[in-house]
Amino acid sequence: MNLKFSGAETGVRHIPVAVIGGGQAGLAISWHLKQHGIEHRVFERKRAANEWRESRWDSFCLVTPNWQCRLPGFPYAGDDPQGFMLKDEIVAYLDAYVASFNPPLLEGVDVQRLRPLKQGGFELKTSAGDYQAQQVVIATGGYQLPIIPRAAERLPASVAQLHSSLYRNPQQLPPGAVLVVGTGQSGCQIAEDLHLAGRQVHLAVGTAPRSPRVYRGREVTDWLTESGYYAIAYEDHPQKETVREKTNHYLTGRDGGREIDLRRFAVEGMKLYGRFADVCGSEVHFEPDLRRNLDRADESYLAIRASIDQYIAAKGIEAPVEPPYVPVWQPEAEITALDYREAGIGSVIWSIGFTSDYRWLEAPVFDGRGQPVHRRGITPVSGLYFLGLPWQNTWGSGRFADVGQDAAYLMNAIELQVGRRAA
Question: How far is Cα 46 from Cα 213, in angstroms, rounded to an integer?
Fold first, then answer.
């Protein structure tokens, strides 16, 4: 059931469950709802899996192996489980998932307001008219509004600027060097994409950690799955709830998968700086923390290797031993200013993440920073849930890997509410 709406309709429609968001999280809970015979609608303001279609660059690929694509009722069935699906393959996987169970999608419908009703349930005002739902699952994820610093306003119009979500390929950028700001997964992979295309890249290095790709003969994802790390709930994690604020480790699935070592890029000619600080006149200023940020990324890299070593030793597993890691490059000095005109920088890519946008949600479920308050997706407001948030329960919560497990957990709570109403 794939319905499209071109305009508002009259009358209030009543549904047991409303799901807001048609990405992998919304589709996962819809699968469970259909399996349990619970009527619902999935509201998607654009098209199902839209972020994968419209907000990824051309060479984008997964950083986790294909076997971790295990949406409910639809595990990866291809011939390359250890590979990394490209953007178009990811979209095809999600399109096939939709076709496999025909969810009640309302595409092109924007939920403009959601609020609890005094008598119970919720009111949804949408671009296709008003709805009332007994329960609501918010599956819009945690990344809605691209972050671009106000300092960007001080760059002249002659320097093209775009957020990482709008980057597609090196050819879309004007001639000249490129400044990439941010070294999370997107920033590092975009910097590599430009570097491999022969562009001169200047990279403002942040505090993101990095990860090995293969260690002691196996993909690191396999080791961490087997050792149980990916099954650790955030409540049991040594960092507790602060783990939800961690930046993802950078690495890539490109060309069969490899780790990203920014020091190696520097040896090959990429220019590295500390964190972006400001724009003053014709200069971009950086914090004097490049060495520290590189060292901390390496500390995370080595900690992962050490944890695998401990697991191998504890289980008595025979695995090849690798030589100690030796940095291939060290910054000779902290460069804190760059004249973008002299450097010939023609474009800047801001890759410093997103912030959430819940202005449309009028419910007392947020903390002082505007983040959802929940336990495994269940909020203090009866019948209101979140799904697909980073570290909602485990490392894989916001990913193909474990969003289905989180959906199953919410399904139990939804069914309980349905049973209470029936009683």
Answer: 35
Contact 23, 388 (CB under 8 A): yes
For residue 416, the enclosing domain spans: 2-144+356-422
For residues 367 and 305, membership in a common domain is answered with no
Q: Are 278 and 151 in contact (CB under 8 A)?
A: yes
Pairing of strands 160-163, 345-350: parallel
Residues 81 and 197 in one domain: no
CATH of the domain at 97: 3.50.50.60
- 193 and 115: one domain? no
Strand (E) positions, 264-389? 271-273, 276-280, 283-286, 337-339, 345-350, 354-355, 384-386
Indicate whether 229 and 317 sit together in one domain. Answer: yes
User: DSSP secondary-structure letter at 164?
Assistant: G
pTM of the model: 0.92
Assess whether 98 and 174 both reside in one domain.
no
Domain boundary among 313, 328, 353: 353
Which of 228, 260, 223, 301 is closest to 65 using CA atoms?
223
The per-residue pLDDT string of the chain (423 residues; one tens digit each, 9 = 90 and over) reads 444 433 344 589 999 999 999 999 999 999 999 999 999 999 999 999 999 999 999 999 999 999 999 999 999 999 999 999 999 999 999 999 999 999 999 999 999 999 999 999 999 999 999 999 999 999 998 778 899 999 999 999 999 999 999 999 999 999 999 999 999 999 999 999 999 999 999 999 999 999 999 999 999 999 999 999 998 888 888 777 777 777 889 999 999 999 999 999 999 999 999 999 999 999 999 999 999 999 999 999 999 999 999 999 999 999 999 999 999 999 999 999 999 999 999 999 999 998 889 999 999 999 988 889 999 999 999 999 999 998 888 888 889 999 999 999 999 999 988 876 666
Assess whether 271 and 162 both reside in one domain: yes
Count of structural domains within the chain: 2
